[in-house]
Predict the structure.
Amino acid sequence: MGDKIRVLLADDHVVLREATAELVEHQPDMEVVGQTATGKETIAQAKKLHPDVVVMDIAMPRLGGQEATRRIVAECPSTRVLVLTAHQEADYIIALLEAGAIGYLPKTVSLNELLDAIRATSRGESVLPPSVASVVVRHLVGPRKRAPETGLTPREMDVLRLLAQGLTNYQIARQLGLSVRTIEAHLTHIYAKLDVHSRTEAALLAQRKGWLPPESQSPGLENSD
């Protein structure tokens, strides 16, 4: 028992999380020590249980996967984070790796690939499938994309600009070609980075700082929360 890889599963999709737990529990070299559905709960359980690996989703309520990863890496040095998510945008991949995740897998991987990734993560090996690795390489060899004056990624700035025009999450998603869930995750990250709690606060702060062009500033923004 002592040699088993101790796994904490963090995902707010209960069916998917429980299916993954059943899969892991059937492996002779692994055991599930906990399951969580929110970022804050994941941090608390990681500190309490000291798992070898946290399999982390990104878009969770009450603190997203990015900040949860950063906190766990800082506060639980023996625990390694493997991101398992439907999000494959470059901004997400780079942000999670910069937060300290050791691996990043799309949810389209096979069951065997996931199990192999958990084993590799427990050994401290980086887990990046070719599609993810190519994004990392382009980031490393290309110009720095993160806007230093805001701390937001280019995609987050796109969301903030459209938010300031008074667009709803659905309208922003359609304009950027993303899902509403992805926009909600972007907003969670924007609020955390800017230390604000609403759309209005985020847009007003951006306007005061001069981050938005005049056409992005909507006088009716206060009605769009």
